[in-house]
């Protein structure tokens, strides 16, 4: 294995999911739902397979899917992306992100991440030979994680090529405020930095908050690549259809990398995703309401079990401080939890360059059936 990849041999999700499987633990670790997406969407995929949509789709993605992505961004956020050259279909958000790094980052260029970061970001930067800089989210008053704005200003400079913004944010559930977005946009504009936004949780956002794509801020459309995917919005994390939208020149660069990574992917799923973006947004709204209720259910259970629970404003996830229960290290706790009480969760410190900051935090996924959450809560009470 190359020195570039040696630090990243296994993912925490594989490790904890395997541990959960071996011990028969309830798995609130890896974030995937345990119910299916909209029936209409599933039917379109089945029909596509039956009707011969089984060969390579066009390199940029099925034109009708690109049109549906463009219509969705226009209707929801008022952003214009020409389907012909400003939208690219990828193998999940993961490929979009990695292809963007390979296409845009020269060896030695710096890329700024918000920490804790989603686990594929540092690997994508490393594959491109880039150097990561991280800016921490800190626990503010009212139990919300906040962007350290001064640290952001200090981290970005002439050496910075790109900044990755994930909102709603995995693992904390933070939705960046307009004020935070304004500072991020200003820093990107002032330093001529490309913003790469991971918006896979764009629809899973709670308590009346709105998702605001960074590309809608002044001067940002021309320097932002916006990424999303089918997995979270439509409960189909195994389909791996994603997309990246932005200025034609940047999208062409990403496409140059993507065509030699996977060339294309998921032909019969592409018409199904187009159908979902056009016809299943009411279904997504019900999913959103459901997830908000599940967040409250799990937050209540965690609080009763003695955890100090942090705010989750979106995503599948909620974080809790384990110190009130007498534990000092979330990673140690998560490695023993399956054996101990039959529950799996993810330590937040694995998403950090400065693990000390998040040592006491554990992430729980609430995108599960109510009976699964209730069983998890019952087991959590055994920790006392
Ligand atoms: N970004 C974030 C923040 C995620 O949580 C995930 C997890 N699924 C992904 C990207 C990956 O998305 P996809 O499955 O579409 O590649
Ligand atoms: N996005 C999912 C999570 O954060 C996991 C995806 C994966 O297993 N790589 O739990």
Automatic annotation (TrEMBL):
Any matching Pfam family: Aminotran_1_2
The record, for CDD domains, names: AAT_like (cd00609)
Q: Keywords for this entry? A: Aminotransferase, Pyridoxal phosphate, Transferase
Q: Which domain of life is it from?
A: Bacteria
Under SUPFAM superfamilies, the record lists: PLP-dependent transferases
Q: Where is the Aminotransferase class I/classII large domain?
A: 26-380
Q: Which cofactor does it need?
A: pyridoxal 5'-phosphate
For molecular function, the Gene Ontology terms on record are: kynurenine-oxoglutarate transaminase activity; pyridoxal phosphate binding
Cellular component GO terms, alphabetically?
cytoplasm
Question: Which PANTHER family does its entry note?
Answer: FI04487P
Classification via NCBIfam families:
PRK07777.1
- Please state which protein family the record places this protein in: Belongs to the class-I pyridoxal-phosphate-dependent aminotransferase family.
Its name, as the record gives it, is Succinyldiaminopimelate aminotransferase apoenzyme
* Organism the protein comes from: Saccharopolyspora shandongensis
